[in-house]
Amino acid sequence: MGNIKLSEISTRAPKEFDKSATKEKSAAIIKELDDLQNLLYAEGKHSILVVIQGMDASGKDGVIRNVMGNMNPQGVNVKSYKAPTPEELAHDFLWRIHHYAPQKGMIQIFNRSHYEDILITRVHKWCDDETARKRMNAINDFEQLLINHNNTHILKFYLHVSPEEQQERLTERLSDPAKMWKYNEKDFEEAKLWDIYMEMYEDCFNNCNNPEWTIVPADQNWYKEYTIASKLSDLLKSLDMKFPGLKK
Amino acid sequence: MGNIKLSEISTRAPKEFDKSATKEKSAAIIKELDDLQNLLYAEGKHSILVVIQGMDASGKDGVIRNVMGNMNPQGVNVKSYKAPTPEELAHDFLWRIHHYAPQKGMIQIFNRSHYEDILITRVHKWCDDETARKRMNAINDFEQLLINHNNTHILKFYLHVSPEEQQERLTERLSDPAKMWKYNEKDFEEAKLWDIYMEMYEDCFNNCNNPEWTIVPADQNWYKEYTIASKLSDLLKSLDMKFPGLKK
């Protein structure tokens, strides 16, 4: 049990970070990620699961494109979870998740995830508190399964934007021809549920925090991308990977 | 924790069971199973998982053919687990299992299962005791996931044959043209490991017994089939199923 209060965490970069210096650092890290991922794939001992959650327009797609997009796609899969299909709903809520758990050597990105089953579902009261508690326990067990039984390292990121920044980005989708395809009038309806979403996110962080969530200040894309690239790079470097020798 | 001792459980039918009377009863139950399965499918509320384990030649294929073979194949899936593929081995051991977890309305049969990961693997020392303990915990969590989150009812059967009966059946495969396709010279090598297999099975039953295993005396096919058909029928009847009305 943690005690994360989102209202006490800034959605902006700490003052000591300079935008252009940080962008340069990110570029260097992202370049390195390509080699690190290649080694991960060659060695085939570890697997990586990156869970990305956040409100609409918090920048999930952008992170995947800008931070993950430089690695070899053969070793990186992205699964974007939408509303469950009838087939998926006819199974337990982790069934469709487990199917995309990463093989050894692979990096799997989840754009939204099993966490929606204790977030949007609770906000709309499709899932009561008792069921949510059971799901949290099941999620914790499931993540331990991946960790203990397939050497999976899980990074969980919450893209923390302010409601003002979200409104600005959603409105931009109405006028920017390159972003109009993302426009969905329902997003404005969802945005009205901000406070209850924050409450459910906090409950989720406080009950499913092993491995820990990273709350990523996300009002500025450059800082958000730096944070996520660094975390992934630090993890890969910590694995003490080696190229395997000739197979016998 | 249970305390099942296989050597204290008979591999033969209790004396009060008459072969031809029991066969008649089985035929009636198996006929009824067809209607019960149809109702299960129509209602779409429950799912059934039947796990069948047993030594080579204990009669797993026969049960599936004779007891399950009368139901509508659209509502009954059989998955036979063999040695894992490289793709499967690159995941946690429950990944390939979860994929075949039954949808609501379905009966899923596992011919061998996740239990092999704490049976043959331990016998051959591919899995040490500490890993086996962790796997047992993961199996227990996994079965609870299916039970709690998809209304899955799990029946676990161990087909309990004597080593003498097994030898007879394996030898028969050498001479019966209809059974030769099942012959595998390695089965005789495995049979030599009988005592250690029994020890690992007992450890499995005693640590993964929620839901409970049914130890099925299996030297006589007629009694084995009666036991399994009855258990499945009793379960389906206990579900208080109803045909759903018109969809609104």
> What is the CATH level 1 assignment of chain A?
Alpha Beta
Instruction: Give, in spatial order, the strands making up the sheet with the most strands of chain A.
Output: 2-3-1-4-5
Which geometry of chain A do the CA atoms define? Answer: globular
Element-level helix/strand string of chain A: HEHEHHEHHEHHHEH
Verbal overview:
- The structure is a homodimer of 248-residue chains.
- Chain A has 248 residues and is of the alpha/beta class.
- The first copy, chain A, has a single domain (33-238), classed as Rossmann fold (3-Layer(aba) Sandwich).
- Helices cover 48% and strands 13% of the residues of chain A.
- Chain A has ten helices and five strands; from the N terminus they run H-E-H-E-H-H-E-H-H-E-H-H-H-E-H.
- Chain A has a five-stranded parallel sheet with strand order 2-3-1-4-5.
- In chain A, helix 1 (19-43) packs parallel to helix 10 (221-238) and helix 2 (60-68) packs across helix 10.
- The termini of chain A are far apart.
- At the A-B interface, helix 6 of A face helix 6 of B.
Question: Secondary-structure map with pairings?
Answer:
The structure is a homodimer of 248-residue chains.
Chain A: H1 19-43, E1 47-54, H2 60-68, E2 76-80, H3 86-89, H4 95-98, E3 107-111, H5 120-123, H6 129-150, E4 152-160, H7 163-175, H8 185-191, H9 194-207, E5 213-217, H10 221-238
Parallel strand pairs in A: 1-3, 1-4, 2-3, 4-5
Helix pairs in contact in A: 1-10, 2-10
